[in-house]
Amino acid sequence: MILALAGGVGAAKLLAGMVRVVQPSTLTVVANTGDDMVLHGLHISPDLDTLLYTLAGLNNAETGWGVANETWSVMDSLEKLGGQTWFRLGDVDLATHLYRTQRMTEGASLSEVTAELFERHHVLARVVPMSDSPVRTRVTVSGTTSGDGWFGTGGEEVEFQEYFVRLAHRATVSALRFDGAETASPAPGVLDAIAAADQIVVCPSNPLVSIGPILAVPGIKDALIARRDDVIAVSPIVGGRALKGPADHMMAELGHQPSSLGVARLYSDWVATLVVDERDAHLRSEIEDEGLACIVTDTVMTDVDVAARVCSQITATRDGDAVLR
Ligand code: FO1
Predict the structure, then answer these.
(1) Nearest CA to ligand 1 atom 23
(2) Domain containing residue 266
(3) Ligand 1: distance of its center to the CA of 272 in Å?
(4) Which atom of ligand 1 is nearest to the CA of 205?
(5) Is the CB of 163 under 6 A from ligand 1?
(6) Does 169 fall in a domain?
(7) For residue range 162-195, what is the model confidence (pLDDT) as tens digits?
(8) What is the pLDDT of residues 79-125, one digit of tens each?
(9) Whose CA is nearest to atom 12 of ligand 1?
(10) Angle CA(171)–CA(177)–CA(183) in degrees, nearest 5?
(11) pLDDT at residue 142 tops 90
(12) Could you read off the pLDDT of 193-252 as tens digits, one per residue?
């Protein structure tokens, strides 16, 4: 059984390849829920939904989030009413949030609703939230942002999606907090899956705000440290840049080197192997000096075939019986 730790778009791309390399039923994914928010009274779980749509083959490949061929009637009408439309919720996507919110209002847990949604979409991989209790990433931003003075200077704490979407992550990050983490517990099955996994794959997600919240749930990081030898991560930074999203400048703004070496340093106490792109081959010896093995390959997943090849290389590093191809 392969266990993957996943955030948003980069993770979904890798896992779309993974399900071509291993039997989907042998894949368990622990997903970040730090991006979740309640908007229009709806519980929205962006990383869970990005994984849902991608593994169901429904995702909008251009944006990486939401569904392909989406329609926007509700957003258009909401706009006319003067409602909040900065966070784009398409008509099909809204059904997911309506269903999740109704089921949770009936008392279902996020894990239960997630299982129902993945089952309805005939996705065989098992995707679970990191926790059933709310853990919300809060970003302290400083400096004026999109020029409209929406922010004064000086630190102001905002919800993750305000930072990521409304400010288009243009603000300077001075602190991160995972609100609710201290009282959260891992979702059912998470710790068992970490203990039982033949291999644990850390997807190329933002180390700070996609993987960070997962590690912040009490018990999860210790469980991963105990499995360090079997944990392999794909660096989300290539040539000092994030392929998508703010990981590089967020790492720099919070005092980490925005490079695969910076990722190695962030992960060194619980990850034994780091997969980096060929453009970062020159970092291999410094990454090894941090105590991690380093695999150099083409990690830029321009299509699902590349993702599948990277996953073949990852699963081939596992000892033990061969994984079904
Ligand atoms: N990202 C944006 O940049 N703009 C949006 O309007 C937007 C809407 C949205 C709706 C549903 C959903 O599941 C994701 C959405 N995202 C949007 C992506 C979201 O911000 C995720 O948190 C990122 O993909 C990072 O994980």
Answers:
(1) 8
(2) 184-315
(3) 31
(4) 26
(5) no
(6) yes
(7) 999 999 888 899 999 999 999 999 999 999 999 9
(8) 999 999 999 999 999 999 999 999 999 999 999 999 999 999 999 99
(9) 46
(10) 155
(11) no
(12) 999 999 999 999 999 999 999 999 999 999 999 999 999 999 999 999 998 899 999 999
Identify whether residues 190 and 172 lie together within a single domain: no
Q: Cα(319)–Cα(278) distance, rounded to whole angstroms?
A: 24
Statement to judge: residues 188 and 287 lie in one domain: yes
Q: Is 51 in the pocket of ligand 1 (CB under 6 A)?
A: no
168 and 263 in a single domain? The answer is: no
Q: What is the CATH number of the domain that holds 284?
A: 3.40.50.10680
Residue to mutate (ligand 1; options 47, 87, 98; most atoms within 8 A of CB)? 87
Q: Find out whether the beta carbon of 66 lies less than 6 Å from any atom of ligand 1.
A: yes
Q: Is the CB of 89 under 6 A from ligand 1?
A: yes
Q: How many domains, in total, are found in the chain?
A: 2
CA neighbor of 252 nearest in space, from 208, 307, 217: 208
Q: HEC string of 83-130?
A: CCCCCCCCHHHHHHHHHHHHHHHCCCCHHHHHHHHHHHCCCCCEEEEC
Do residue 234 and residue 158 come from a single domain?
no
What is the predicted pLDDT for the residue at 135? 98
- How far does the centroid of ligand 1 lie from the alpha carbon of residue 79, in Å? 18
Domain end marker among 126, 158, 179: 179
Q: What atom of ligand 1 comes closest to residue 45's alpha carbon?
A: 13
Query: What DSSP string describes 157-220?
Result: EEEHHIIIIISTT-SEEEEEEEETGGG--BPTTHHHHHHH-SEEEE-S--IIIIIHHHHHSTTH
Model confidence band, residue 319 (pLDDT cutoffs 50, 70, 90): low
Q: Residue 83: inside a domain, yes or no?
A: no
Q: Taking the model in full, what pTM does it have? A: 0.95
111 domain-assigned = no
Tell me the mean pLDDT in the region 46-62.
97
Question: Does residue 10 line the site of ligand 1, with CB under 6 A?
Answer: no
Query: Does 6 map to a domain?
Result: no
